[in-house]
Amino acid sequence: SEKMQRKQSSKNSKQPLQVHHSNQTDLSAWRKGGKPDPEKSLQNPTSHNSQANESEQDSFEQAVSYFEKVQSPVSLRKNEVLQKHLATVESTALEKGLPPEAFDVLLNVALSGKFADAVNTRLLKSLIPASVIPESSLVSSVSWLCVSKCSGSIQLLFIRWVISMFDFIDHKDQLHALYGFFFSFLQDEKMCPYVCHLLYLLTRRESVKPFRIRKLLDLQAKMGMQPHLQALLSLYKHFCPELVSITLSGRMKTYFKNSEGPWKAAISAIRRRNQKKSPVFQPLLLGTTQHQSRKRKWNTQLILPASSASTSNLADVKDKNSDLYNISKSFPVEQLQTFSQLLQNIHHLELPSQMGSVLTHPLLLHYMNCIKDESIYLRLHYWMGQTLQEECTWCVVDSSQYEEEFKDFLEIVHKAECFLQEGFSSCEEFLYRSLPFWDGFCCRSQVLRLMTWIPLSSFSEMKSYLYGPLAQLFFTSSLYFKCSVLESLKELLQNWLNWHMIELGSESDSQNHSLNTTLSGLVNVVAELIHFVGRISAIALQLENNVTFLLYFILDFYETVCDIYLRYNLPLLIMPPAGVFYPALLSMDSVSLNQLCYIMYRYRTNLVAAKENEMIKKKVLQFQFSSQTYQEYNQYLIAMVGCLWTSNAFQKDIHPEGLRLDEEVLKKTRVKDFKNSFNIVYHPALMGYALLFLQQAWPDDNTFNFSLIKGRKWNWYLEYLYAQGLKGLKLFIESSISRVSLVS
């Protein structure tokens, strides 16, 4: 095109890189890790290390100068000078990275076709930045793609390099202006997946045009449902849903191939060396005012990029009224500093290409909460899903050394979920894929925290992907891990119930039918979670010999379950299994017994409220509890009253897994007065209180005769127990014992 020809002519006429004059100073400062000080150089003798650095610097400058001046094609095999300079560029790139001034020369050489593909490939693989990559270098190099000077494999490698180094490009405006040029490369089947990825990073709302949508649909009809095409179409549909009428798959996966292979390890190695060698030298990476960069590439995504149009130049750009940049219609997110700015520009924000930076920006998280733009979640999902898959330390070989960094990343994701009060679907998919390979130790607390924000899913998915692998780890791990899992599942249940309350409040009366359908699905999923926790809890208590520490976390879970109907307005009540109820009832710890009493009190309150609502038909759409729920509650109630109050649990307990025993069997135990073994005086969890009560009531009696606690003393003893903080016991006795007495 004429535009590209003009760029080509301007490229040929522009000034060469002055490696021996002005740019030599820049390269020297870059090589030494700071600005040169001539006075200090004269005063201090040159050490051996500085001489070596200067020698390396001179060699690199000579290599850049050589590649800039070479004109005719040169063979690699017969040219020792070329081999030497090429090796110098490669070693410099691997050791420290290349300065910004070198990219213009090396990119032009690699794409101009002056050398064989073997040389061009090595040059492109050596283009590793020490700080940033000038956008002008990329625009200049793109012009070579128009004149077909380089082979298709070099063009493909160049596109992959742009994708991998996208976060290091200092500005993006001119690249956005080349959107149509990159779009034309979709015709090439080999380049299509990577071009889609690059277009995905560059796409803005104004990039979506009907002719581009038609082209993508034609390619999809020709190639089939390719993931890269579907990703770009999904983004187009979220920007302009009225233009994309086809239905796209809701279940996402990794849509783009990994483009970072040749450069990822080198970038990480450079950052590690630079951070260890000198605290002064720090690569600019994506922003000059942010915290120091970390090692892995995902961390560069968490920092806002350098502004695509600097503040000092914004006025000039606006004055030009350039259709190329269209700055006046958007507010660069890099300038977003205050909440008032967010409110003033909330409909004009231009989010960064690297969506990971949204996770660490509170104002952008506010924006996600206020503006329900599905394209934001879509782009964040793509990036986060790929990052989690590539950086997972127990799924990727030789990545254990980065465990601390992966922990930090998972912490950032979890904090963002807490801020938004909703989970990311990409985290859900990551958990489903990685849990079967997880050992339960690596990043334990972070993984369990992510588990608490799993979005509502169908039970079939959770049963196979979550409950199955989690149960295997649960039964074979330590007591502490079991308690941590139970705590996470309790928080997951609470998050689901809170989500239901929010959705219930936002529904209108005209949506009762759809609400009923949604409510039915929610009830089923929540019920299966509660049943799952009940099963693993009963087995865990057997494995751990009914240890009190584990029992506390189990009962803490059921404190939420027993109040679901009244507190969360969800028509569901599920009693704990007998393997949980009876260990708590017979526990030797007063805290566990008190917890159980409070839980039974809240079950009674919820069941009575549900029965009253059924009687008066307060609601048109009313879920009725099954008779089995009431029956199971009554069985547990009889067992508790028989133990704590009437001392006839061994005779009256009617639960199939209960305490009922024949009197002949009880006599063989040779326990005196076995009927009273579990009332509020003799119960192992309360006997300590009874002993202290006897000491206060009869200070001169050293026989500790518990039979003295009866009649009026029984009531005094009850008041004494209540005064010790056993509020659950008090609520249970006052609500259930009197009622049972009246009935009998």
Main attributes?
single chain, 744 residues, mainly alpha, two-stranded parallel sheet, 36 helices, 2 strands, 1% strand, disordered N terminus, disordered C terminus
The main pleated sheet reads as: 2 strands, parallel
What is the 3D shape? elongated
Helix content: 55-70%
Rg of Cα set: 35 Å
Query: Average pLDDT, to the nearest integer?
Result: 77
Helix run count:
36
Low-confidence stretches: 1-26, 28-43, 278-297, 305-328, 508-517, 739-744
Structural class: mainly alpha
Strand content: under 5%
Q: Give the spatial strand order of the biggest sheet.
A: 1-2
The separation of the N and C termini measures 97 Å
Number of strands: 2
Written overview of the protein:
This protein has 744 residues and is mainly α. Among the domains are: 116 residues; 75 residues, no CATH class; 95 residues, no CATH class; 143 residues; 64 residues, no CATH class. It is 62% helix and 1% strand. Strands 1-2 form a two-stranded parallel sheet. The radius of gyration is 35 Å and the shape is elongated.
